[in-house]
Design brief:
The complex is a heterodimer of chains A (about 600) and B (about 290). Chain A is built from 13 helices and 23 strands. Chain A has about 600 residues and is of the alpha+beta class. Chain A has two domains: about 400 residues, no CATH class; about 130 residues, no CATH class. In chain A, the strands form five sheets. In chain A, strands 1, 4, 5, 6, 7, 11, 12, 16, 17, 19, 22 and 23 form a twelve-stranded mixed β-sheet that branches. A four-stranded antiparallel β-sheet of chain A has the order 14-13-15-18, with helices on one face. Chain A has a three-stranded mixed β-sheet with strand order 9-8-10, with no helix packed on it. In chain A, helix 3 runs parallel beside helix 7. Chain B is elongated, with a radius of gyration of 35 Å. Chain B has a four-stranded antiparallel β-sheet with strand order 4-3-6-5. A two-stranded parallel sheet of chain B has the order 1-8. Chain B has a two-stranded antiparallel ribbon with strand order 2-7. In chain B, helix 11 crosses helix 12. Chain B starts with a helix and ends with a strand. Chain B folds into two domains: about 130 residues, no CATH class; about 100 residues, Chitinase A, domain 3 (Roll). Classes of the chains: A alpha+beta (about 600), B alpha+beta (about 290). At the A-B interface, strand 3, helix 5 and strand 18 of A face helix 2, helix 4, helix 7, strand 2 and helix 11 of B.
Chain lengths: ~600, ~290
């Protein structure tokens, strides 16, 4: 009998082991490409721009389905449609938390509030509703809900639960372990005074908050972190979440404002392990002239420096140091030295921020479908000339190194920051740091195994020193459908007393694949430092250039150009794009 | 049986005769749709908006025809009284009145009648769209529908071992090296496991897990995948080119793709015959003014 029990136990254990592992489980981890910033018709700005795709459509699209987008003809047939060449490995639909209930009320004639004047405007003049409702929700220091939401917004909060359920049920339906992962998520869209404070919340599993936190209920990042901590990460319900800030380039320096205390610094460090450095609305890695002489920072820069500045140009202030990830990484080193904790110890990813419900559509083509949110409307018909603002772009991808394609494995990768971002191409990138790597690691067939065994991957903190200077190895492969690699760089930031420094090193040249071993030649064991890698493609034509070529625009006779096509001949619109990948940093603490 | 049908046949014959006589004596009135110069400009503008260029002469003609057809269908729908029994139009007109005169304390039916008295059923854009939608559906013929949500072809699966020779590393010697590699693999009858050490270092290991064809293409390129189509299993094939260099490939297993998984929504293209019949009652004129 005991023998039989032992066999039964062994069988059940083996079944359990198998149940947790996918057939392509890789202990040394595989790169998974995805999009963690996706809006659908449940977002006010998307809906007022004519987006009809909901969360289910977005997940279908991510898995490779062809999906229609606006404008729609009078027969309700979409006049454009899109399809991914390569389906994604993971996606999170992250609709705005602010207007979930309001939109539900404004579109359901059975609900009280449907006939309110705001809802009437929403249904009759969507473009006007976008400005009225969005302005009310995002920009005031203390935003209040519209009257039809009732006392304390209870009526709108009650009906926000309906779309919130739809978001959850779509994520549940399309989550397909080992093949395609979905994450329940949402965006908190505050922009006090027009300065962007936007953050996405991504949940580990089905245990999520009862309702998303919106900008109506919180006044600053500290309140967001407290709410997420109380309602999720410390609620002992199995709930876990990461918060990912984005568009720091439009934040007027607010997103990377230094926390006042060690406690808030610790909250930020534990809840915000990643930052989105690139998307439709530009690049947020660094800015030329802001503590940097790096000429490659002049990449996909928006003309605006605050969210509101996109619509009201005179509100734009000069770019601020606090608006860029690299500056924050440097500030974090200083705060680490002062507070004993680094609030800006974050990894980097990119995503799209699509408002068309089309995640991962990052192709640089003449047919760039536009942003579908804050930019040009295409609800009734395509706008003349460029489909969207010329400084917008098709966005980037988030890449996670994980053992397998499951929520648990990918979420853990986010938490440990073993992640990188690309401006669109599927560049493959490994980055390891340690003290004892052999100089010939690039010629070894065991680079990855040694990378893990003798050091840490991207996102890690170097262990205690065992040699005079840290050693790094970077290996990259081009996107097989993209351009060749131009070079690999390491960007180092460090503190020297109160002074913050950075330096960009070119460590490998061009090729289809590239690998480099690098030892920091100026290492000072007493100084806090970070290192991240940037892999550059050779320059290629930007979507706007491809569009203008497609339209056969002749810049010799600029007076004959139709409306908005004059951008084709505008020297301020870049003709080329140098696509790239940014790794998460590896940190050194003295 | 025949005698039972007789009265019916007589009835049809007489009825048909009377109908023909009536048609001859009272031909249906021809209604004129006048397209004003401003409307013509709007048609041109709309075309430029959609297409990014001015229409050619024949394209403009087609656009005018479409514009005329829309107006014709709208009038036909009104003539048939479709605007009087449509819940969408009812709701729309009631809402319009509520918005226009919020202080009015009238029932839905009264508001609806008031809106009609103001002629809203003829001028409101949503009413127009709704009627056009119904008219188009009525003149539609059942053609194969246009896919809107069309899933990509279900991807097959393939399990390969690939021995990689790097173009960056080997340069001009790459082709020769690849030929020699394949000669060695085939000559020595090397099993995939035994060949790993012949591969140049790469982030992609020689033994790839079982992958969907799409995934394999995303790693090595579509050309690489295409080169494996129809290739023999359990033997060395190649050299197969990728973005990175050349590969000797061993296919362990291949599972063909299934039929495409397609979700469609109905389409309603116009039925030219039905439209032609209605067009006989209308004339489209382009005004010079």
């Amino acid at each position: 009998m005991r023998f039989l029990l032992l066999i039964a136990l062994a069988l059940s254990m083996s079944t359990m082991a198998r149940a947790g592992r996918c057939p392509d489980y890789n202990p040394h981890r595989t790169a998974h490409f995805g999009d963690l910033h996706v809006h659908t018709a449940l977002s006010l700005d998307a809906a007022t721009m004519g987006t009809r795709n909901g969360p289910r459509d977005a997940y279908l699209f991510a898995r490779g389905a062809r999906v229609g987008i606006q404008p729609y003809d009078p027969n309700d047939r979409p006049m454009r449609s899109l399809q991914l060449k390569q389906p994604l490995d993971f996606t999170s639909v992250t609709d705005h938390a602010e207007m979930l209930g309001e939109l539900e009320i404004c579109t359901d004639p059975e609900l009280e509030g449907y006939t309110s004047w705001v809802c009437k405007i929403y249904r009759s003049w969507p473009r006007a509703a976008f400005f009225i409702m969005h302005t009310n929700a995002a920009y005031p220091e203390e935003p209040t809900r519209h009257g039809f939401c009732g006392d304390n917004g209870e009526h709108c909060l009650k009906y926000a639960s309906r779309p919130w359920q739809r978001i959850q049920s779509a994520a549940k339906k399309f989550d397909d372990p080992c093949s395609f992962t979905t994450f329940v998520g949402y965006e908190i869209t505050g922009a006090p005074g027009g300065k962007n404070m936007h953050r996405n919340v991504i949940f580990r599993n089905e245990q999520v908050q009862k309702l998303p936190v919106s900008n109506f209920e919180v006044r600053n990042p500290e309140e967001i972190w407290t709410r997420i901590r109380n309602e999720c990460t410390e609620a002992e319900t199995g709930c876990d979440a990461v918060i990912i800030p984005h568009n720091s380039n439009l934040s007027g320096g607010l997103i990377f404002k230094s926390p006042a205390t060690a406690e808030t610094a610790a909250m930020r460090a534990s809840l915000e392990p990643l930052v989105e450095v690139m998307q439709h609305k530009g690049d947020s890695e660094c800015s030329p002239g802001l503590g940097s002489t790096d000429e490659l920072c002049g990449f996909e820069k928006l003309t605006a420096t605050s969210f509101m500045g996109q619509f009201v140009p005179f509100l734009n202030q000069p770019p601020s140091v606090g608006s860029y990830a690299r500056s924050a990484l440097k500030t974090g080193l200083k705060l680490d030295a002062e507070l004993g904790i680094n609030p800006f110890e974050f990894g980097m990813i990119a995503s799209t921020d699509t408002h068309l419900g089309t995640p991962g559509y990052v192709a640089e083509t003449a047919d760039f479908p536009g942003h579908g949110g804050a930019g040009k409307p295409a609800r009734e018909s395509l706008p003349p000339g460029f489909v969207d603002r010329p400084d917008y772009n098709p966005g980037g991808l988030a890449v996670l190194w994980a053992e397998q394609n499951t929520r648990e494995s990918l979420f853990t990768a986010m938490k440990r920051r073993e992640a990188y971002g690309t401006s669109g191409p599927r560049i493959l990138l490994r980055f390891f740091g340690g003290w004892d790597y052999d100089a010939d690691l690039c010629s070894s067939s065991h680079l990855v195994e040694s990378g893990y065994k003798q050091g840490v991957p991207m996102g890690g903190v170097l262990p205690e020193a065992t040699s005079a200077a840290p050693r790094f190895v970077v290996s990259a492969m081009r996107d097989p459908d993209g351009a060749a690699l131009d070079r690999i760089q390491i960007i180092k930031g460090w503190t020297d007393g109160d002074a913050l420094h950075e330096k960009v090193y070119d460590i490998a040249g061009s090729g289809n694949t590239s690998c480099a071993f690098w030892v920091d030649p100026e290492f000072n064991a007493a100084q806090h430092a970070f290192y991240y890698t940037r892999v550059m493609e050779i320059p290629t034509k930007r979507w706007s250039t491809l569009y203008c070529e497609d339209k056969k625009i002749a810049c010799e006779e600029p007076d004959d150009l139709e409306e908005d096509l004059d951008y084709c001949c505008d020297a301020d619109v870049p003709k080329l794009i140098q696509e790239r990948a940014w790794s998460s940093p590896i940190w050194y603490r003295p | 049986m025949v005698s039972a049908l007789k009265p019916l046949l007589v009835f049809l014959a007489v009825g048909g005769l009377l109908f023909t006589i009536e048609r001859q004596w009272n031909p249906p009135e021809i209604e004129t749709i006048v397209i004003l110069a401003t409307e013509l400009e709007e048609i041109r503008r709309e075309w430029r908006k959609q297409m990014g260029r001015a229409p050619t002469e024949s394209e403009l003609e087609a656009a005018i025809q479409t514009y005329g057809d829309d107006e014709m269908l709208f009038r036909e729908a009104l003539r048939l009284g479709w605007d009087q029994n449509d819940p969408v139009i009812y709701r729309r007109l009631v809402q319009n009145m509520r918005f226009l005169e919020p202080e009015l304390r009238l029932s839905h039916a009264e508001l609806y009648q008031k809106a009609r008295a103001l002629g809203m059923h003829r001028t409101d854009i949503v009413v127009r769209r709704r009627l056009l939608q119904r008219a188009r559906a009525a003149t539609a013929k059942p053609l194969p529908p246009l896919p809107v949500h069309q899933a990509g072809n279900a991807s097959g699966q393939v399990h390969v071992t690939q021995i990689f020779l790097s173009r960056d590393k080997r340069g001009e010697a790459l082709e020769t090296d690849a030929t020699m590699l394949l000669e060695k693999l085939r000559g020595e009858n090397l099993a995939p496991q035994a060949a790993h050490e012949l591969s140049d270092p790469s982030l992609y290991k020689p033994d790839q897990p079982k992958l969907t064809e799409r995934k394999l293409a995303s790693r090595f390129g579509q050309g690489f995948l295409d080169a494996l189509a129809g290739a023999e299993l359990n033997t060395w094939i190649g050299p197969v080119a990728s973005a990175y260099g050349l590969h000797a490939v061993w296919i362990h297993e291949r599972k063909e793709s299934g039929p495409p998984n397609v979700t469609r929504i109905p389409n309603s293209p116009r039925n030219d015959q039905a439209l032609a019949a209605i067009r006989q009652r209308y004339r489209v004129e382009v005004s010079a003014e």
